[in-house]
What does this fold into?
Amino acid sequence: MYACLIREPAGAGTGAALETAARACSPRVARIGPDAVLFDARGLTRAIGPASDIAREVARLAADHGVEARVAIAGSMTAAWLLARATPGVTVAPFARRAQAAAVSTLPLSWLSTLPDFRRGVAGWSNAGADFVGPAEAGPSGRQNSRQASGASGGAGFSRPHAKAVGRPTPRRRKGARTRHYRLAPGPEPGVFGEPPPLVPDVDEHLVTLARWGLRTLGDLARLPRADLHARLGPAGVRLHQAACGEDAVPLVPAGAAPRFLERVELEWPVEGLEPLSFVLGRLCDALSSSLERANRGAVGLTTRLRLVTRETHARALRLPAPMRDARVLRTLIQLDLESHPPAAGIDVVEIEADVAPATIVQGSLLARAMPAGEHLATLLARLGALMGESRVGAPAPVDTHDDRAVAMTAFAPASRMPSSGESPPAAPAPGFRRFRLPIAARVSVSRGLPARVQPSARGLPGGLVVAAAGPWRSSGRWWSLAGDGWDRDEWDVEVAGGHLYRLSRDRASGQWVIEGAVD
Amino acid sequence: MATPALKHLEHLLQTRRLDGTLLKPWSQDTRPAAPTGISALDEALGGGLARGELSELVGARSSGRTSALVATLAAATRRSGIVALVDACDRFDPVSAAEAGVALDRVLWVRGPSMTVEMARPGLLDRAVRQALRAFDLIIRSGGFDVVALDVADVPPVFFRALPAATWMRLARANEGSRTACLLVGAAPMGRSARGVTVRLEARARWAGDSLQSRRLGGLGVEATVGQGRLGRDGAAWAVGAEAACTPA
It folds into this structure.
């Protein structure tokens, strides 16, 4: 849901005041020229109410800032822009994707020339995207200046700055050539919309072409096949068709520096230990969570900086698996991380900064198995990491090697998936194997090429006469490596008296026997 | 026929989630269970390991405990569930588990310190056991897992006698009423819950091949006995034949 505010042509106020009013509603604001702003109005329904209330509230805010403005709210930036340009007062369009085309379908075709893509009706717009000329300098209509200022595409347009035909550079006019203005017939509801802007053939050549085809309204254009328009008019035809359908080609690019989500407190006296620090962290996380909620953002990373009494800074960075803003969860994660990596001295200043991402709404599936929530899983993994060590918690990962001793771990991040119906359990389960991560040295007597007696060096591991043995299976690899991580060994499965099953291996270079593990 | 007073008492216990301590016969048909993937064992268990309860797989070394554990994990991941394994002594082998059908990306593996248990100092082993129990407790309380297993198979039973008596009761209480099947893997019975089961395993190696060159370990012939909780009913013994070859390297 997007809102567009356009200063009335003869109204009071300035563009800066308009932007201030928009920023009071949303942090994601794009200024389009000196007399218009667009902002992301998603999330305001929870704070203000339905879209009509939002529109009225925005208009009131603008009036409070001394600006007489038109307000339009629609599901896309293009629809909001066109409706605000064409309709005075407050306009609210339906938000459904398909409804965007219907909302603008009755507009006369020439309103497309006002889109920022076409540099029309945006007085003083320069290619830097931020170097605006004031309305006084832009002239009453702004059209002449906009022609002169046209160049590369600005950052806040609704389409990619690709097509030469769309974002046309200033046309070279022949000396003495006269400018002809076409005036299209008004749409079906002439009383609703303002006077449509006239078309200039040199600049609006595609719109003039469409007018020659007999198209009068955006609805007429939207009904044409997009592929055919592309065949005849190229990318410009596609963009015009998208605009006629009320579609945006690019997302909103907010202007200005991204807001920092940072909370900081300077303590009156140093805090020693983590327990008193948890109260400070709780306060900061509450404030951070509130600011994240206001901006409809979630933290995907947390940086905790503790300035110590020794004038050193103890900094810790946490990556979070999913955007989250629950204050208790954030505090717990920071606290657990600091328990694993405590500061070396008392703390003077505490600062928490969040890297943010748009908050996600997770929709559960009726068919897939329920998974633990990302926040719960992150908290659990952080607690386990603090308890066991971060490197000791995760999911086992296969290693691309023939060395059975190799083991690796990766982050535990299971995806939700449907239960597999076709996969049936094996008829007989495979024997399990318990691998001794540190192989246990053993004395092995060999008789006629077979292990005959095993005596482990570990007292708690029973040995004895070998009842049965199978092998050897030879395994070698990385013999070419200079790092000394190659292996070359013979492996045996043996059963010793008492029914214990071991896997033995003999290093072929040194002749040393070790027990790799037990079959269980 | 239950009297109104008895019904009222049961209702009060249920609302406080204390009905797990009630001594009442339960129906195997209605009990939620997590299948182990071993058909003979599932049949004896009445569908699988009881969810919301603490069950045990116990036996000596090479008795088939790890085979049953890995089969249970594989069955759970085949159902698209996620599982957790607290590996107190770091003896889980991902290669053989993957060969047995475990989807490794759905296993939360919590590894204890890598040590030679058979040579470890008692203090070190005791710390590893307590850490593993704490991790097991955290995972149970977090919820959302299909199966959570604590593998302390290589830890001598004497270490568990030193634990406070309420340890296992607290764990069982934490899991009560949840959809998680908890599994302890050890050398001797430790602390299953009231309606959990103790599966005692014994196994004999099965060797295949007639000649010296063709001989290989063909699997384990496992016999299991189900001890069915405090009601004192013993399950029947049966054999689980693991005919799949154990293929080193």
Observations:
- Residues 25 and 234 of chain A are 38 Å apart (CA to CA).
- Chain A touches chain B through 75 residues (CB under 8 Å).
